Amino acid sequence: MDLFFYGTLRHMPLLKIVLGDRFEAISLHEATLSGHQARAIAGEDFPMIVEMDGRAEGLLCAGLSSEDVARLNYYEGGFNYELRDVTVDTATGPLPAQVYFPIEHNWQDNGPWSLETWETKHADVTDIAAVEVMSYFGIIDANQLEFMFPMIRARAHAQLTAATEDRVIGPSGFGRDDTHHVGDEVTHKGFFIMKTSEVAFRQYDGEMSRPVKREVFVGGEASIVLPYDPKRDRVLLVEQFRAGPYSRGDKAPWMLEPIAGRVDPGETPEETAHREGREEANLSFEALHPVAKCYASPGCNTEYFNIFLGIADLPDDITGVNGLDSEAEDIKSYLYSFNELMEMTESFQAANAPLVLAALWLARHRKRLHR
């Protein structure tokens, strides 16, 4: 079977990941599809093909086996595409092929799409996400994969960020080169995943340890923001049902906490903080002050927190119930004076670590914020 690729699958590293060992057996030729264009989609980083005047540049991928097509369908199925017959133009003349067209959607055309621009901005995180996606081929069906995909992308973004940032103080001087990776096994596959990593690491006597296995909850990167009004000297906290306290057996699995949300690919932590302020509490922040950048629980958890204090106007009528129905969010907001916040913190009623960190940061910087 021959397929014509006009979008992200023209990026060779991604195509290699999707096809796996069979990549070397296929042949690729430059081709175009008349009467069509590759168009950007508002709010997305992948393109769609649209019937319109023009010519879509691309690659004709020939010699695909049924297994190859099954792998490609599995990957593209998560983006709501289906194959249709077309005729493409090649150096040797017109040839029949199939193309992935978008299924019924509400996507908004956002102008011409550029492979070069996409590779600069999005290729790295897409390649990392594709490795996880294709590891589920033959294990997880396409419907479950579509549900998991936003978190797969978030994990890929967090992994890429971790590889490019260098903030942690390490007095030993040890780094990633002082480890030996033996292997990984994903022991739970869902919206979140559990992974068992087997690794040896350098000991303080200079020798390498024996390989040890460590189970890790693989999360993403989150932005957390405590809204504070310096004029009224009060904060806004949100309350919602939380699975962690519930699973622990806590009598009160509804938790007071700052506003929080996942950092999506293409977003900065600051952009996420502003977005979550709007979604969870209908708030706009005048300024964001960094409080901490830290792991939630580094012994068993990859989740990474960007904690902020957000300056906001908090009048009496700002509270309410908010959240996204698409994420089953039911979030109620409350106002507390600074003194009430500190009493809550010192009496251990603030049972949320980012809230305690932000409260203590506020106590230290409150006078400066008033000025």
- Assembly of the depicted chains: single chain
What is the mean predicted local confidence, pLDDT?
93
Looking at the structure, the CATH topology of the largest domain is Nucleoside Triphosphate Pyrophosphohydrolase
- Terminal Cα span: 69 Å
Give the strand content: 35-45%
- Judging by the overall fold, what is the CATH architecture of the largest domain? Alpha-Beta Complex
How do the SSEs run, as a string of H and E?
EHEEHEEEHHHEEEEEHEEHEEEEHH
Q: Could you tell me the number of beta strands?
A: 17
Keywords:
3 domains, 6-stranded mixed sheet, 371 residues, 8-stranded mixed sheet, single chain, globular, Hypothetical upf0131 protein ytfp
Q: How would you portray this structure in words?
A:
The protein is α+β, with helices and mostly antiparallel strands. The chain folds into three domains: 142 residues, Gamma-glutamyl cyclotransferase-like (Hypothetical upf0131 protein ytfp, Roll), CATH 3.10.490.10; 43 residues, no CATH class; 150 residues, Nucleoside Triphosphate Pyrophosphohydrolase (Alpha-Beta Complex). It has nine helices and 17 strands. Strands 10, 11, 12, 13, 14, 15, 16 and 17 form an eight-stranded mixed β-sheet that branches. Helix 1 packs parallel to helix 4, helix 4 packs across helix 5 and helix 8 packs antiparallel against helix 9. The N and C termini lie far apart (69 Å).
